[in-house]
Amino acid sequence: MPYERAVCNFCGTGCGHLLQVEEGRVRGVYPLPGHPLSQGRLCVRGWHIHELLQTEERITSAFIRENGELRLVLLEQAISYTAERFRKLGGEEVAFLASPRASNEDNYLFGKFARAVVKSNNLSLSSDAGQEESAKVLLAGGGWPAATGSLSKLKQADFILVAGGDLTKQNPIIASEIHRARRAGALVVTVSPRKTQMARLSQVHLRPVPGTFSLVFEGLTRILYEEKKFQADYLEKCTENFEAFFKKLEQVDLGEVVARTGLSLEILTEVARKFYESKLTYAFYPTGVQSLDRKTMSALFNLMLFAGKLGQGAGGIIPVTGISNLLGSYDLGLSPVFLPGYLDASEEKNVKKLEELWQTPLSRKPGQSVSACLAENKSLRALVVVDHDEEIIRNVNRIKELELVVYFGAYHNNFASLAQVIIPRPSYAEAEGTYTNAERRVQLNRKKVDPPSEVRPLWKNLTELARALGHDWKYHTAEEIFSEIAKVVPQYSGLTYAQLDSHLGLKWPCDEKHPQGTDYLMLDEAGNKFRFVLDENVRPQPQALAEQKADFPFKLTVGRSNYFWHQNSLMKRTFIPKREYNALLLLYPKGFVEISEEDARRLQLREKQLVRIISESAEMILAVRISPDVLPGQLYVPYFIEDMIPEFLLRQVAELEKNEEFFLPVRLEKAG
Amino acid sequence: MYWLERHQLDNLVKKLTESYELFGPRRDKVSNEVIFDRLANPLELDLEAPIPYNPPKYILFPHYEEILRYRYDRQSKQVAIEKLSHLKPKALVGLRSCDLTGILCLDRFFLGQEFVDEVYLEHRKKLFLISNTCVRPFPQCFCVCTDSGPSAKEGFDLDLTRVGDRYLVEVGSKKGQNLVEELGLKEAGEEAAELKKKVVDESVSSFDAFALENKAWISRATNRLTTGFIKPEVWEYIGNQCFECGACSFVCPTCSCFNVEDVNRLDGTTDRIRTWDSCSFEGYTKMAGDHNPRKPVEDRRNKRFFCKLSYSQSKKYLRPGCVGCGRCARVCPGDIGLPNVVTYIRREITGD
Ligand code: SF4
Ligand code: SF4
Ligand code: SF4
């Protein structure tokens, strides 16, 4: 039987697919109809994953750099060379950049290697902070760090709030589920400045001025408060700090909300009432790139809690992970703040417990994210990187100063060209492993084809490396690692490969109490108490303080579109998605800026005319694309490949991409 | 016609596997879904299974296929071309008649025009086709509206119709006749044709009760599409829902769009690759000038339904481009599979 069941490895939707395997190669892909979430649908990326899986443009052997040149070596040589270099490095001199696309098994051992072997807590995913902030907010409010609602019950929803991003592009099949729920009768309200396709598929589209997202949710809550649309006895019984929250609510000034968001009180009131009256209510926001900021996530959480939409049924908050195993990566503690299972890394008892489980002393020195290390940590000497999707690498000059960069990767990219050691990685079809999607569903991918001879799983190479460094690691299969994960991560404690094999994934927590996994969060899981997330200590975003200066009247936001996904480092190894990207590039070879019809008319701009975009610190030239998708006063630049990201954006991009709230004040002039 | 007893089915399959790779419907154990697949184990063949989620198209027109390999020699300035075809003969057993009709549509596209597609022909001429009458339709089916079922009329080597616990076998080719004789099947006598007609008639009349998902209004929609009397708002409504995934083309038994790419290989040769493509993609139609970013999407949608249902298109293929399998409705993230679109058009006509 050449069509074999597997899980798409592109985005956090984790759609089920069938890989057509012939003579040791993946020759085609087809949607798996019985999959509980995707139910036989795939997006354009998923429909072409076999093109990526067949590419010959990949790394198939190990390399060591000598005198500036990469030299092909045997895998064993690369391992012993790396071990030799590691012996001369101290714990926090090394930082570890993990991949949200790698399996739970690979990621778990990667974290364990950093913490237990190298004794470094400098461990993180790339710069996107959305998922981590989301986990923190949800933990603070309900003790449960991921999706509180159930996607399986979404079709019965009567109110769906979608905040930020464009799910039709980022996680198309989740967007499709939302669309189906709408067709079944739900009211879909999208909050985003741009008229995205998600917005077009919603009955109500709220377009707040960039930078005012959190005010929208605070305003909605305040309206409910004024209209006495809340259940005081429920709040009293089930929340810890409602009084403090009420005080905070009283400070919310609806006049200011209206003035700053640009939304009318009528529409806000109408939405607030419908929201309150709904029986099964969901809120979605993307995490990872283009997420919301912490303040907005908290405001949204508080709104849901205040209206009694949490912990009482299948509805809830669904943070949508943009990359296949982004959630799993956090579950396994690939973060300076979380140990595996979301245990607080700064608490002594948690570190002690991990020391016992791992039978080795761990460092108490607080870790930093890799981007923070590169920016601030002067004592950093080495970097270990696993498959990095982003073509843009920040702090390149700092990386060039490092003594050692080790890159475990499947494809050549900028990290590979900075690396002293390159060790190849298999594709997800060439190894066993589990992946955890946005709905907490842990899914097992069995190996479908053999990797090239010098390519073996990351966990295997890490095991060899750990052994070379004097740690008696004895992992022979991914399954053995998974059973260790089940011992370390409480949410995974009831999961086994055998069980995952006979299911199309199970949603964590899967433990003694929930042997078949858990569909959604009930109040008792939250210890019978929720807390409003007050975030007193959160630094106000610099944005909120920045006055829009008259010289820079436009608000520029950036984003990514369908095919230009993660800078295309994977897409460019396919045919169809790559071609689709080229189609737009042919029309706009230098990239484009979207501007509203009104502004274009006012400034007498034509389609494709070149304009200069000027910010306080830099400028760039782009072609005009007049679009009904942006509001007057706003500009939108999709950035997707390196060539299209002039110096201008590169400098700002870290800020801009963090979340929807950031914008850059700019002005626009005709060029030439 | 002949009778195939239940126990003779195994013989039939065994006989086929001597000279052919066996393909047919099987159930995936965990998801319980039906896949038209290569069957390493003939016992997996499930002739009672509902219409498979995938059409057999990929067997003749693979998702991804190297169609030739060449090497350019710089010195001699010569190109050495190698044909990459080492195809095995294949037997497709248990084809639903919509899917068999789909193959006939592909034949017309790849073989029936000015140029014969050699690669397709290579696949096609080595097939042994056994169709299987749908004695009861499945929820998604509307082949009665597209003249492609529930029973096959042409194109098969053998056609099976289940009657009680045995099958009536109709022979459609010399190859089929030989097999029937090799197996020593019993002739079914005079009443066979009448019996088969009865089964098929019953199936047709049960569409109202069982094929509930897609009440298509094909002929009226065909009229509308052909005359172009469909309001732009309807296309806008449809276009807004398109996620541009390509699925509707990929799962359609009759869609034949393809893309050709040359891929340089590490050993210095170049592979010419043919892959599935879809008219839903921007790059496929290279529509220029995108003042309204959604407008081209609408136009592309519009084009697909025109291709499937308009009269002019039907004339070219001697039948509608849609064979009523209902698959595009199930895979579409936007809920705009062909039957839904037909419903929108009907609503526009009837105003409800
Ligand atoms: S939605 Fe995500 S998981 Fe599903 S097919 Fe597309 S890329 Fe793959
Ligand atoms: S258009 Fe849809 S229903 Fe018609 S044959 Fe193609 S996939 Fe089947
Ligand atoms: S399946 Fe639906 S969403 Fe996908 S391209 Fe076809 S019409 Fe568009």
Poorly predicted tracts of residues of chain B: none
The chain-level mean pLDDT of chain B equals 88
Strand content of chain B: 15-25%
Radius of gyration of chain A: 24 Å
* Biggest pleated-sheet summary of chain A: 7 strands, mixed
* Poorly predicted segments of chain A: 539-546
Largest sheet of chain B: 8 strands, mixed
Mean pLDDT figure of chain A: 89
Please state the overall shape of chain B, judged from the principal axes of the Cα atoms. Answer: globular
Name the chain pair with the biggest interface and residue counts per chain: A-B, 56 and 52 residues
As laid out across the biggest beta sheet of chain A, the strand order is 5-4-17-16-15-6-7
Helix fraction of chain A? Answer: 25-40%
CATH class of the largest domain in chain A: Alpha Beta
Task: Please tell me the CATH architecture of the largest domain in chain A by its name.
Answer: 3-Layer(aba) Sandwich
Global shape of chain A: globular
Count of domain modules of chain A = 4
- β-strand percent of chain A reads 15-25%
End-to-end separation of chain A in angstroms reads 62 Å
Q: Helix/strand/pairing class of chain A, anyone?
A: alpha/beta
Structure overview:
The complex is a heterodimer of chains A (672) and B (352). Chain A is α/β, with parallel strands linked by helices and 672 residues long. Chain A folds into 4 domains: 3-54, Phosphorylase Kinase, domain 1 (2-Layer Sandwich); 62-119 and 332-507, Rossmann fold (3-Layer(aba) Sandwich); 131-320, Dimethylsulfoxide Reductase, domain 2 (3-Layer(aba) Sandwich), CATH 3.40.228.10; 542-670, Beta Barrel (Barwin-like endoglucanases). In chain A, the strands form 6 sheets. In chain A, strands 5-4-17-16-15-6-7 form a 7-stranded mixed sheet. The radius of gyration of chain A is 24 Å and the shape is globular. The model of chain A is unreliable at 539-546 (pLDDT under 50). Chain B has 352 residues and is α+β, with helices and mostly antiparallel strands. Chain B has one domain (2-350). Chain B is 39% helix and 20% strand. Chain B contains 16 helices and 12 strands. Chain B has helices spanning 6-19, 57-60, 97-110, 118-124, 143-146, 174-183, 192-205, 207-210, 218-227, 232-240, 247-250, 282-285, 295-309, 311-317, 327-331, 338-350; strands at 2-4, 21-27, 34-38, 64-73, 78-83, 90-95, 127-132, 158-163, 166-171, 186-187, 258-264, 270-276. At the A-B interface, strand 2, strand 3, helix 6 and helix 23 of A face strand 3 and strand 11 of B. Residues 8, 10-11, 13-15, 38, 42-43, 45-46, 171-173 of chain A line the site of one iron/sulfur cluster (SF4).
